[in-house]
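Quick question: who can interpret this fold?

. . .
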Amino acid sequence: MNTVINTVREILREATAISLKLFGIMVPVIVAVKVLQEMGMIDVLGGLLAPFMGMVGLPGSMGLVLATSMMSSVYGGMAAFVSLSGITPLTVAQATVVTSMILIAHALPVELRIAQKAGVRMPVMAGIRILGAFAYGFLFHVIASWGDWLQEPNTTAWMPPVEDTSLAGWGIGQLKSLAVIYAAILGLLVVLKIFDRLGVTNLMVRCLETILRLLGIGKSAATLTIVGMTLGVAYGGGLIIQQAQSGAIGKRDIFFSLSLMGLCHSILEDTFLMTLLGGHLSGVLWGRVLFSLACTYVLVKWVSSISDAAFSRFFFLENDSPVRRSGMLRLQRFFQGRE
């Protein structure tokens, strides 16, 4: 009984520590995004994206859908999609293109900050996800047009619930979201503990190890990759940061793993949500997975060929650099009364 109690306490303590670290990143970003939204910046971003939507076979109005997803979440993009789909009818192929792009490039302020906290430079990860979204959208559009596939009118099986748009309603909604994330982290830790006891984790790592080895990603990043690809960067963010900062995973493996999960994450929940909007599984799941693996393979081959100095300069943040360490030591001495 004491062992069970101690295990529960350990899990609660670890879940709280991980959640607090994650919330410290998320809350300021969420507030900043809300301020930008109230200022109309999402509409501005949608207008900037509109001219580029033709490249992927979409009407310019879908730029607002993508902008909303980028700045808020998958659910924000879904609400924008439903509100515009009645005005601008789409084919199944077009719906698959836009929903696939949403899956690759959404919640960027929060998820890019998580990747940065894990060590990856934010502009690099932003480029991977935004350019990846447009590259995949263009590729799927060309293939669907060439084969004349999925050209029937799209139908949507989801309608957004009526939400309280007041500031208080927004605040309550965000608190609920944070509570769900805490519960997800707690559940994830419980599942990982059970899997460790049963040996399931080792089995999953061995299964994934073959794929990762072919891509050029080390075995130490296997669990990190599993969490991100299945649960998502936001839900697994605290655990991702914890593992990345532990020193047990190499910097290049962290970068490659986060690049892969940036292109393809939350393959269970988010994929299902996009099918409700009309996205076809051939695009929102199978094509996206193959595209992400191919892009990661090319990225690994290219980045592995550059020097460590160039990698640190352009791709990875040196969180324990001599300059930063000396600054932290001076600050510590100051508060200890040594300066």
About this structure: The chain has one domain: 2-158+173-318.
